[in-house]
Specification:
three-stranded antiparallel beta sheet; 5 helices; alpha+beta
């Protein structure tokens, strides 16, 4: 639509992999310290060369998490939500806003420290009945804009949600 405006466009915040960062850093330090401590006792040869590279494994794990995070993108507009994921093969899921039944804002303690949060959506869509937008900056403000856009879409399309008791 011509009047479709972008509410948010971007990737999840790196805060979402903070636990992996801390674990990888701790493992790197521990493995490096162990390597330094036991280096002289290790026999010469191929085993010593292999063990030399072991502390890099947690850093490679962290690099993989970082790359995977950068290949998730969100585009929230006044009409729909697009989620694109994938490094080699990409998948783009699209959700029309008038299909959203309910929204929730989830702000874990660590996320609040960095002003990010998760927006959870319950939808009437068959392919994605629940959608979680992870580690969104200014999630509270975006959720409010999203709520207003959802109501506007429902009104414009004359789509309502019937609640049966």
């Amino acid at each position: 639509m011509a009047d479709e405006r972008i509410i948010f466009q971007g990737n999840p915040s790196p805060v979402s992999i903070l636990g992996s960062l801390l674990l990888s850093a701790a493992l790197f330090v521990a493995l490096s310290a162990g390597l330094i401590f036991f280096w002289k006792e290790m026999p010469q040869g191929i085993l010593r060369q292999i063990v030399f590279w072991v502390p890099l494994v947690p850093l490679l794990f962290l690099l993989g998490k970082w790359i995977a995070l950068k290949f998730i993108s969100y585009e929230i507009t006044s009409e729909r939500i697009k989620v694109t994921k994938g490094i080699i093969s990409k998948r783009m899921d699209e959700l029309e806003l008038y299909r959203v039944k309910d929204t929730s804002l989830i702000e874990p303690f660590i996320y609040r420290m960095f002003s990010v949060g998760n927006i959870s959506l319950i939808t009437g869509d068959d392919t994605s009945p629940q959608l979680e937008l992870t580690a969104i900056p200014n999630a509270k403000g975006i959720r409010e804009q999203l709520r207003v856009s959802i109501e506007e879409c429902r009104t414009r399309k004359r789509a309502g949600i019937m609640e049966l008791e």
